[in-house]
Amino acid sequence: MSTEDRYRQFAQQSPTLPLCFQPWYLDAVTGEGRWGVVLAENNGAIRGVWPYFLKQKFGIAYITMPHFTKWMGPWLVPDTARRLNEEHRLIEELRSQLPKVALIQVNCHPDLRNWLPLYWKGFRQTTLYTYTLDITDLGRVQHGMNRNIARNIKKAAEIVQVSEEESLEAFFEINRLSFLRQHLEPAFSFTKMKTHLKALQQHDAVRLFFARDAQGRLHSAAALTWDRERAYYHLSGDDPALRSSGTGILLIWEAIKFAHETLGLTIFDFEGSMMPSVEAVRRQFGAVQEPYFRVWRRHWLQF
After folding, report:
1. Measured in whole angstroms, how far is the alpha carbon of residue 118 from the centre of its chain?
2. Is the pLDDT of residue 161 over 90?
3. Which domains are assigned to the chain?
């Protein structure tokens, strides 16, 4: 059995494997390169994995992050009894099997708290933050909101109706408008986004929320994804001409309620952001920082 086949089998039997580590997820997001995986074992059982995305530019191979993917890098099977020396061994076993490339740069999952074995091999690191919210008790979530957020939700709810729809074209267009408002080119094409969201739909791992007013105008849209551990506020967009309605904030609240009431999850992950204006909204919802590592190593350092 190939390493990839073993990984696919492992993923089916590993309920805590994060969403973006799922083989079917990687199949859908790595169109311009290819993904692979290395495995670390203990007594024949897989105890750690490192899926990677391999690309080439001007004939130079490198490992990076594909579109729509927040985290890759090493991931160890949760085990409260695991000793630190075993953790070191597993991470080094994974690293030593990676392809020899000019550059590696990946964002590690927040579950990875130990990057020391990578430091010993010449990697460097910077700390980034996602923002997470404990949604076990929605009343407590509401109590922890900034007053402006609460008022914004109430105001927006009087302007629009929120519905779950499957229009990928409408979703892409309003997401594109958010990029254009910031004088940026969209980060991905409609074809790439469609492939990604279709895969999520096929695996019942996404809901698209749309906020429309009485005239049928689309103010905002948001995509919520999830695995068995977390719900992720994955993609969103607002019409710049209607942005003052504040419906983007309303959709966050609707996504939180869906994650709690329908999915039965207790963690809502905003997937960042490090941008000051976006971070402020996350914080005003009562979310807390959760650090994760961006690690990299360039070719002139010995493997």
Report:
1. 23
2. yes
3. 3-121 (3.40.630), 132-290 (3.40.630.30)
